[in-house]
Structure to design on (326 residues):
């Protein structure tokens, strides 16, 4: 969650910049997305949930201070009455989005070890029964999870990452197996990987079903897919509504614990489990990220209680899913 917030913020600023550039060039290119289940975008079954909160002419006002770029922009977002799928109806075209992701920069910093543990924990008890020859992480960033997989017995680990910068800082024994670019058909052989992982990526894609179908082809029979992403029915999302960080210009399709498995089944997978993901960080970290006043005082309090480096695990609104190719 925390790294995701950083990740989201960095991308949001980039997308805002992109929108400005596009406007300067008088060159907005929007495409219309359909419901992944109804294959339509009819208003009756997909009413507007949140109206687009930026206007093209606003972006042209020349007021893009740092403060302005921190605005919480989102497209028009609609919700499927049947499945609860929340999606952005009119989005920038794929070329614009691809350009955006190529320039993405991710800062994990001191949180890396906690993210590694949080993502590993849900499969830690399963992998002893799984084949561990080849694994792939899609949207692997600097390869932080490939490190975990390799250190836990996977013989050959591969990653795909559109950003060029993360690869440069990947661990030396992993770097050469990171492909810079976009995941798609033909990049890897069919029936190849025993495990494919994908974290906080599916809801950024304009064609998530196509992505899942490619993953299905690349997975070896008996192999697994493990993903983590936002859950639109998580408590935080329901409480904050439009103000939730997940209602954001970078998210195209947003899922819940019911419609995500349905989409995965459409791609051919059997669903093994869907679950909440906890994020554990030291008390000192949560305090630093919290909106609490008098942080100095609280720091003293948690220090006095001996909690500074104790881990507090919170359900931060993410869900995980484990799939199998039978
Ligand atoms: Zn629908």
């Amino acid at each position: 969650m925390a790294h995701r917030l950083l990740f989201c913020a960095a991308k949001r600023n980039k997308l805002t910049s992109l929108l400005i550039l596009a406007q300067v060039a008088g060159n907005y290119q929007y495409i219309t997305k359909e419901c992944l289940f109804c294959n339509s975008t009819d208003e009756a079954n997909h009413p507007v949930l949140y109206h687009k909160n930026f206007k093209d002419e606003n972006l042209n006002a020349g007021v893009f201070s740092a403060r302005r770029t921190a605005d919480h922009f989102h497209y028009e977002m609609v919700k499927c009455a049947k499945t609860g799928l929340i999606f952005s109806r009119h989005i920038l075209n794929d070329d614009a989005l691809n350009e955006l992701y190529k320039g993405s920069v991710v800062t994990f910093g001191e949180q890396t070890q906690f993210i590694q543990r949080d993502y590993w924990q849900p499969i830690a008890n399963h992998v002893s029964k799984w084949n561990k020859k080849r694994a792939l992480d899609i949207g692997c960033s600097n390869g932080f999870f490939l490190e975990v997989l390799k250190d836990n017995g996977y013989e050959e680990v591969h990653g795909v990452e559109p950003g060029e910068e993360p690869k440069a800082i990947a661990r030396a024994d992993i770097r050469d197996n990171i492909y810079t670019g976009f995941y798609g058909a033909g990049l890897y052989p069919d029936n190849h990987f025993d495990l494919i992982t994908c974290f906080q990526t599916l809801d950024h894609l304009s064609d998530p079903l196509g992505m899942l179908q490619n993953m299905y082809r690349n997975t070896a029979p008996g192999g697994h897919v493990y993903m983590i992403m936002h859950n639109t029915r998580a408590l935080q999302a329901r409480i904050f509504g439009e103000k939730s960080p997940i209602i954001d210009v970078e998210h195209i399709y947003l899922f819940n614990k019911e419609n995500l498995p349905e989409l995965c089944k459409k791609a051919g997978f059997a669903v093994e489990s869907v679950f909440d993901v906890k994020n554990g960080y030291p008390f000192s970290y949560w305090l630093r990220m919290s909106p609490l006043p008098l942080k100095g005082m609280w720091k003293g309090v948690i220090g006095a209680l001996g909690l500074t480096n104790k881990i507090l695990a919170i359900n931060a609104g993410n869900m995980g899913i484990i799939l199998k190719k039978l």
Observations:
- The longest strand covers residues 311-324.
- The chain has two domains: 2-102, 109-324.
